[in-house]
Amino acid sequence: MKRRSIIFKAPLEVEISAETVPGIGPAEVLVETKFSAISHGTEMLVYRGLFPADMAVDETLPGLQRPLNYPLKYGYAAIGEVIEVGSEVNRNLIGRMAFGLHPHESCFIAGVDEIFPVPQDIDPLDALFLANMETVVNFLMDGRPVIGEKVVVFGQGVVGLLTAALLARFPLAALLTLDNFNLRREASRRVGAHLALDPAQPDTLETAIQWLEPDASEGSADLVYELSGNPGALNPAIAVTGFDGRIVIGSWYGRKQAALELGGRFHRKRIRLISSQVSTMTPALSARWSRQRRLDTAWDMVRRIRPAQFVTHQMPFSHAQEAFALIDNDPASTIQVVLDYGRG
User: Which residue range(s) make up the domain with 159?
Assistant: First the structure.
């Protein structure tokens, strides 16, 4: 059996290669991919060659424990049908749709404990967002929004929009979002942001500060999320944060450097910077929260938010190079690009 795989050959260059699929082990399954989602954040750093060269692709995912250098396979959001199972796997899985944290390939082999059967009441396109949703659940666990708080989210890509959508379900006093692209700001308002601003406008920071607290000269936000992927957003994030406020940094910057202004109000206002990444859970909750409990919560949020609403482009798998180039060259027109394996 042959499969087609997307290979990142060099910066801005991907190709589709054919290879023979090895036999599956007794505790493994073979999944025929139907859709995969391109990450507009982390994956585009790989596409652009902006990743650190001294680390594994992902130390926590069995399918991505390789050196992070070209050529490589990458991707972590695939949905497909289980078509074969190993001798130790329940045959009831055959025919089930399953999510895998797996690179873009027409089929893939994974351990049965490495796939996530899609609940029957969840559409496959919605299920494609499981990894993003689990990340967002983790962001909220780390940020711990409180009733009546003023919250700001920098970046309204898929992860930022999902974060705003979950935050909108809290009884917050204010939810402000910022993104460079109008398409994403409109989506942000649809999911519940009270105000969505363009950070590229010269008066945006002053507008945000005064909208959060009329006539204020300094930031008053209780909780800020930096999810733009742009380290330049960190200083505005500090500027809008109030005394003892929290800034959750969910962006991965790769090799991009962050020039932080820490000599002024950052210390005086006792502002806290919190790193957040889905591979681990805050120790404060780990005694009661297992990975499975967080995963179940993420599935429930997928049901409620229906994130397939953020798919702007559904392109044939064979057009992978065009899909990545579109995201790179025309980000203003995209929110989520999905590769469709049934369309070539």
Answer: 132-275
Report the alpha-carbon angle 61-63-68, nearest 5: 85
Q: What is the DSSP letter of 71?
A: S
Domain annotation covers residue 235: yes
Residue indicated by tokens 């780990």:
286
List strands edge to edge, sheet with 195-197: 195-197, 174-178, 150-154, 221-226, 241-249, 272-275
Tell me, yes or no, whether 145 and 46 share the same domain. Answer: no
pTM: 0.93
Q: What's the DSSP call for residue 332?
A: G
Let me know: does 296 contact 5? Beta carbons within 8 Å: no
Question: Could you tell me the two tokens for 147?
Answer: 């009733």
- Among 82, 77, 98, 117, which Cα is nearest to 308's? 77
Find out whether 82 and 31 touch, Cβ atoms under 8 Å: yes
What pLDDT, in 10s, does the model give residues 32-91? 999 999 999 889 989 999 887 655 555 555 555 556 789 999 999 999 999 999 999 999
Q: Residues with Cβ < 8 Å from 247, sequence gap 6 or more?
A: 224, 225, 226, 234, 237, 238, 241, 271, 272, 273, 274
CB 31 within 8 A of CB 76: no
